[in-house]
Amino acid sequence: MTIVIGVGNDFRRDDGAGPAVVQALRGRVRATLAATDGEPARLIGLWAGADLAIVVDAVRAEPPDPGRIHDLGAETAALAQRPVTGHALGLGEAVALGLAVAQMPVRLRVLAIEGLDFGFGRGLTPRVAAAVTTVTDRIAASLASHVSPNPSPVRESRPS
Amino acid sequence: MTHRNDRTLKVGALARVEGEGAMYVRVRGADVEEVRLDIYEPPRFFEAFLRGRAHTEPPDITARICGICPVAYQMSACQAIEAACGVTVDGVLRDLRRLLYCGEWIESHALHIYLLHAPDFLGYPGAVELARDHRALVERGLRLKKAGNTLLEVLGGRAIHPVNVRVGGFYRTPARTELAPLAETLRRALDDALATVEWAAGFEFPDFVHHHEYLALSTDRYPLEEGTLRSSAGRAFPAADFEENIVEEQVPHSTALHARFTDGGMYLAGPLARYSLNHDRLSPLALEAAARAGLGAECRNPFRSILVRAVEIVYAVDEALRIIDAYEPPPRPSVPVPAREGTGHGVTEAPRGLLYHRYDLGPDGLIRAARIVPPTSQNQAAIEDDLRQFVTTRLHLDDHDLTHHCEQAIRNYDPCISCSTHFLDLTVDRS
């Protein structure tokens, strides 16, 4: 089973990048699609048992370079924090917790998009919107070449 | 720290609470001069955002205020709009609302107990470290949380910001066969819930008692989705009189408003108040679990709130099973709620306490004014008061230990600062 998980809040501007990628992948990939808020137990519930989980999340970086894309593995993602979220636990804790309770996908890939504006409201800033298109194409291309013996149907856990 | 008896304790970003905020404590000699819970997440302006919207929209819009307790927002919004329109939703639809709310309590309480609060009692910095040493325990917490999540997905359409709730009821009600697998999940969850109470009962609780006036809903069942407000000092008033009894004040250090009784007294809402005012309305199984855990009819030690939450999980699972067992699909998924000019009030028991909504509807059915009072802003004054008492008896501790104790004291209340604006950093000023 392959799952693509968009993490973020589409009512917090660029924090909606993850859910936007999931939305754009509809009909383009044979994978389970899900959007969530980044709360660790929910993330673990979504990716546990998957052969491949691709998590797309918006991040802040210093110095900032909005729209820059970081392609990370589980080890690097475990160091990540999500200062954007209103929750005390983020993606880094989700990976660390998933590893501690052995509820991780066989492979985890994290695509992080640097955001600019995390204020209230809908809509992505132009460079983040462009990055969403790039990440969507990159995931679609990688899944097209990813041979899965039992491709999963497209299912939306939380439509954005 | 500059001087043993004059110091400032500052926590710049409180961990393991929901939202963003900070805490500031100023100590002069043996006196704790000031304790502030600083909330710096920008105000959410939801009340203004709702003006001009249709009367059918608040359940979906206000659900977005919080990812942990969206059902609470939906239920208080529905109740208030329906009151404004003179419609009562009862029978099976009322039971289904209660069932959905049980899912949110299970999920929210399991998250707080296992991932946020238990590490404090077991000497771990966080859930990850706890999980490395006690994998089976954290797995049990994740299973419980997932059971609540599943309930929300089945009945609410999805776990975060459910989409199946509408003014008047639901968009779609489930067939009995759809609830059967859920009942199986909940039966397994009941064992996990009972084991959680037994486990938490073995924790060592600091000796601390507070005397706040407790305020909770009261009805013929353990309060969730409806009821009359009742306090430990004998106050009783309906949701419609909330604003006559409770005022919100702006405080300089916070973007959340502080709520108090109009006569000036502070109060505490949430699990401790709910339990202490409604202990006799728990199900026999939850009552038995509470008694075995050593909880009496009233609980005034906020550190034992983890135990009360565990008992409430038992209740919520038990109640959900009761509703599912008795369930017969209603003839229609909702009742009509035609808009009319008027004002409606709604109060329900969010996992963290009372959540009040008021809507003023114009003759066109559009919202003229909205008011939302979340539990954390109601509890903030009582939390600060507890911290003041708590710090006064622990001034012998160094800043590191005192900071840790204060953070633990704050987590007793599972404050959802996202909701109350509206999150945490700690400063202890001893200079």
Automatic annotation (TrEMBL), chain A:
Coiled coil: none
GO molecular-function terms, A-Z: aspartic-type endopeptidase activity; enzyme activator activity
Domain of life of the organism encoding this protein: Bacteria
Alphabetical keyword list: Aspartyl protease, Hydrolase, Protease
Keyword presence, Transferase: no
An individual GO BP term: protein processing
Similarity section: Belongs to the peptidase A31 family.
Full protein name: Hydrogenase maturation protease
Species this protein is from: Actinomadura soli
UniProtKB/TrEMBL annotation, chain B:
Positions of Fe cation binding: 69, 419
Origin superkingdom: Bacteria
Matches recorded under Gene3D superfamilies: Cytochrome-c3 Hydrogenase, chain B
Key word Glycosyltransferase present: no
Keyword line: Iron, Magnesium, Metal-binding, Nickel, Oxidoreductase
Database matches in SUPFAM superfamilies: HydB/Nqo4-like
Residues that bind Ni(2+): 66, 69, 416
UniProt: Mg(2+) binding residues: 47, 372, 422
Molecular function via GO: ferredoxin hydrogenase activity; nickel cation binding
Keyword hit for Iron: yes
Listed cofactors: Ni(2+); Fe cation
Record-stated family: Belongs to the [NiFe]/[NiFeSe] hydrogenase large subunit family.
Protein name: Ni/Fe hydrogenase subunit alpha
Organism, scientific name: Actinomadura soli
